[in-house]
């Protein structure tokens, strides 16, 4: 595994190295982003796990509950959101785990770059590989639960916002439970209370979309929560990571 | 500025002794307050126009709910002080708050259910206030679980402090939820700006109960704090003298 | 007797009201007991440790 270059390439005239320029935090974050993407794509089998889990769990409900589409439509918002939450939680455990084990996380903390920014980059990758696919698949699964096509844009919007929030909130939980052995259950226990507002408004927006009613209000609130989470979440996560690494 | 007086104040032996001396000053007024409030609430306050005698659950439900939120706020505040200024005793205070707050959150939820069933016909509704109170309960549990999950005490202090601070967003949600959304709960008639809209004969026992519960919390917190301090002070020399007494 | 019965039934809400008061009382007492147990156990623990340290010297 090549050492992670958090400094910029040496620059100079004719390629002669003068002094290595120190990378900006922005460049460092970009590198972390690309690195995480690259690493994730090496284990291609693991990439589809969150989506597969989501589909399976969502499919459980018609099997366990009822095959009648009219009744499924009523519970569709809850089913979609709970499945999305569970699938996100599943993937969160691995957000920091590998980097902690090989010492990369410590390097990030010591690098002098903004840990908040680096963790934000990691969370972005996590969302692109977990939340975004979930949000894209959700309308289809909704269709399987009897949801009309007109509702699908609303569902997509709600889940796009909601999964971003879940990734950000989950990152805090993952950071806090880094030092705990078998902290997976504790991670869920910590993340779920914080994720409740997201669930409430997300499910509400989905429900309104299914009924064909304007879902703007809960979507705005969901958006507000997402923005709040994006701005404050990585800061909290960075603080938590530093604490866990002591 | 000379901070010696502050460090003396925050030092474990001083806190241990001070807490021990202060406890009766909170415990006895608390007991008196609660007993008087109980009497007034059960015997003197007239039955409610709409709810009849059943409204008297208010006198245990409202103070418990108040406790659940007040204790969390104090816990989060102490945790923040401990985290930012690295004052160990603040972490001890936060740790002492958690079990107290959690138990009264449970009481608030259960007494709320017992009030709701005859009133609205249902034990539970997923309305904003009840839901956010339930979230508060899980936040307490998560706090305590995180503490016990991390072996190093200093790390446990600081990680749980982050959690407590992040969870504080829930507190304004609990309070303002009845204003922001249509809720089963009635709008605040006491904790709002302007004059309360409740009759004095009904209000008085409530205020006394709130006072009693608050004093009670201070007393129990001080007891727990002494325990925490003892637990954290490994082989300190002052322990020998303190334990002799 | 009718006055006591009226008091206990609390206008028909007695079956909800008294358990609520009872639970609150239990939790109030329990918190105190629990806190004092913690202190007592910590004291005994500290005493034991000091004894061990004292013995080693």
Characterization of the model:
The complex is a heterotrimer of chains A (246), B (245) and C (57). With 246 residues, chain A is mostly helical. Chain A has helices at residues 25-42, 44-47, 49-64, 69-101, 104-110, 115-144, 152-176, 184-211, 216-245. Chain A is elongated and about 60 Å long. Chain B has 245 residues and is mostly helical. Chain B contains nine helices and no strands. Chain B is globular and about 60 Å long. Chain C is rod-shaped, with a radius of gyration of 23 Å. Chains in contact: A-B, B-C.
Put the structure in a nutshell:
The complex is a heterotrimer of chains A (246), B (245) and C (57). Chain A is 78% helix and 0% strand.
Overall structural domain count of chain B: 1
Low-confidence stretches of chain C: none
Question: If you average the pLDDT of chain C, what whole number results?
Answer: 84
Beta-strand content of chain B: under 5%
Helix proportion of chain C? over 70%
N-to-C series of helices and strands of chain B? HHHHHHHHH
**Main sheet makeup of chain B:** none
Strand content of chain C: under 5%
Q: Which two chains touch over the largest interface?
A: B-C, 38 and 31 residues
Overall structural class of chain B, as computed from helix and strand content, comes to mainly alpha
**What distance separates the N and C termini of chain B?**
35 Å
Gyration radius of chain B (Cα, Å) is: 20 Å
What separation lies between the terminal Cα atoms of chain C?
71 Å
Topology (SSEs and partners):
The complex is a heterotrimer of chains A (246), B (245) and C (57).
Chain A: H1 25-42, H2 44-47, H3 49-64, H4 69-101, H5 104-110, H6 115-144, H7 152-176, H8 184-211, H9 216-245
Chain B: H1 4-9, H2 12-44, H3 58-85, H4 88-120, H5 128-149, H6 153-167, H7 170-180, H8 200-232, H9 237-244
Helix pairs in contact in B: 2-8, 3-4, 3-5, 3-6, 3-8, 4-5, 4-8, 5-6, 5-7
Chain C: H1 2-9, H2 14-56
Task: Name its key features.
heterotrimer, B: 245 residues, mainly alpha, 77% helix, 0% strand, globular, C: mainly alpha
